[in-house]
Amino acid sequence: METILVLTHADETGSALTRASLEAVTAGKELATRLSASLAVGILAVDAAAAASSLHSSGARLLAVSGEAFAQARYATDAAVLEALCRAANASIVLAPGSSRFTRVAAGVAHRLGGFVDTHITALGGGDAVEATRWFYRQRVEAVLSRDARPWFLLLDAGTHKAFAGEVDAAQVEEISVQLPAIRTTVSGLRAPSQGAQTIRPDAKLLFVAGAGWTKKQADGQVHATEAGVLILGFLRLAGASLGSSKSLVDQGGEGQPILPFLTHLNQIGQTGATPRHAKGLSTCCHGEEPHVVGWRFIADRRAISLDPNCGWTRGKADVVYVADAFEVMAKVNALLESAKA
Ligand SMILES: Cc1cc2nc3c(=O)[nH]c(=O)nc-3n(C[C@H](O)[C@H](O)[C@H](O)COP(=O)(O)OP(=O)(O)OC[C@H]3O[C@@H](n4cnc5c(N)ncnc54)[C@H](O)[C@@H]3O)c2cc1C
Questions:
Q1: Is the Cβ atom of 334 under 6 angstroms away from ligand 1?
Q2: Which H helix or E strand runs over 94?
Q3: How far apart are CA 316 and CA 227, in angstroms?
Q4: Which of 94, 187, 206, 282 could anchor a disulfide with 241, C-beta 3.0 to 4.6 Å?
Q5: Ligand 1: which of 223, 272, 327 to mutate, most ligand atoms within 8 Å of CB?
Q6: Out of 73-82, 102-111, 150-159, 259-268, which region has the weakest mean confidence (pLDDT)?
Q7: Residues 145-202 pLDDT 10s
Q8: Which of 189, 263, 176 lies closest to 228, judged by CA?
Q9: Which atom, in ligand 1's list, is nearest to the CA of 245?
């Protein structure tokens, strides 16, 4: 009989679980129900009692480690906490969100417990057994893994499960004591781009893709890169969308061509880029070639704006294609969004 533990952690407030953690709780509940196994949730937070309130109706045993020492991710303290939670739950299957915080320590914790870890899990299946699905070779090959090794740690990709949403109320939490090692690392502060400058938003409903057309000569024979940047950033702000790019557009910087300064290769979608998960996608000024569109595998509703009626999107790669000038369309869309907000 398996004993399932879901490891979760708080967001930057220290008192609320991250969305990816709540997704892992859903995965744990589904697995525990299918296997008729016991379910525990381990919480790492500054204020674990507050964080646990969202799990009040989860039906799981709640174990927690809390305190100021856990406000920041730090290998030594995080690894010690996860090890203690796993030992307290005597877990054979450990599910955890594949966040940067947990991805950093999961392999080390699995090793300390003599277990095994697999990452980028997108689904859990199987009848009486645990079978974990993940993609290899840039989303070309989907594999189903099973292992005899226990404890088996499975880091889940974000966006693959619904976030657990139950009644919020005070929950009964078992505080687990942890013997912390000597701490050599002190976190003196965080330096990150301001929220407004952050264009990659994995939790956004919409992916907005900018293609190279935005910086190409337009009908008047001129390049309008500055105007393009204003339109794109305006839309991201108004719609809360995540920004993706074609390879051609992000490559242009190195070629000395006009660029959009807020784009980097991290925005690139496609065969040699990212394969994000969003409910909807809007491609603009992009030709929709196969090496790009392969990165849209997990975008459910696809739309494109292109001047070219023969572009790849019109050849079965999008649900709706607007054969139109993206400068005009996005200016109008932004104006409508502005007036809707006012
Ligand atoms: C091995 C390999 C791997 C690759 N990996 C990737 C990858 O990961 N991601 C990726 O994106 N590409 C990848 N590519 C490149 C890919 O094949 C294309 O070259 C690239 O996606 C083209 O980018 P684009 O559509 O933005 O630019 P273009 O092909 O230049 O298309 C620009 C489009 O914008 C339209 N346009 C111009 N002005 C406007 C306007 N005002 N309004 C509306 N539309 C307008 C034009 O009609 C045109 O269709 C890869 C290629 C190879 C060989």
A1: no
A2: strand 93-97
A3: 30
A4: 206
A5: 272
A6: 259-268
A7: 999 999 999 999 988 999 999 999 999 999 999 999 998 888 887 776 655 568 999 8
A8: 263
A9: 11
Taking residue 289's Cβ as centre, other Cβ atoms within 10 Å add up to: 18
pLDDT above 70 covers a percentage of the chain that reads: 98
pLDDT of the residue at 96: 98
**Which of the 8 DSSP states describes residue 269?**
B
Give the tens place of pLDDT for each residue, 228-268.
Answer: 999 999 999 999 999 999 999 999 877 777 789 899 999 99
Q: Is the pLDDT of residue 32 over 70?
A: yes
For the question of whether the overall pTM of this predicted structure is more than 0.85, the answer is no
**What is the distance between the alpha carbons of residues 327 and 225, in angstroms, rounded to a whole number?**
11
Q: Write the single-letter amino acid at 43.
A: I
* Summary mean pLDDT of the chain: 94
User: Which of 235, 307, 314, 330, when mutated, tests ligand 1's pocket best, judged by the most ligand atoms within 8 Å of its CB?
Assistant: 307
Closest listed residue to residue 4, CA positions, set 89, 93, 128: 93
Mutate which of 248, 269, 332 for ligand 1? The one with the most ligand atoms within 8 Å of its CB, which is 248
Q: What is the pLDDT of residue 15?
A: 96
- Is 321 close to ligand 1, i.e. is its CB under 6 Å away? no
Task: Give the tens place of pLDDT for each residue, 308-323.
Answer: 999 999 999 999 999 9
Q: What is the Cα–Cα distance from 278 to 338, expressed in whole angstroms?
A: 23
Q: What number of other Cβ atoms are within 10 A of residue 96's Cβ? A: 30
DSSP string, 201-215: -TT-SEEEEE-GGGG
Task: Quote the ligand 1 centre to 312 CA distance (angstroms).
Answer: 10
Distance 238 CA to ligand 1 centre (A): 25
Is 125:144 a contact under the CB 8 Å cutoff?
yes
Torsion sign across C-alpha atoms 259, 261, 264, 270: negative
Q: Whose CA is nearest to atom 41 of ligand 1?
A: 325
Cis peptide before 151 (omega within 30 of 0): yes
- Write down the number of H helices and E strands in the chain: 8, 14
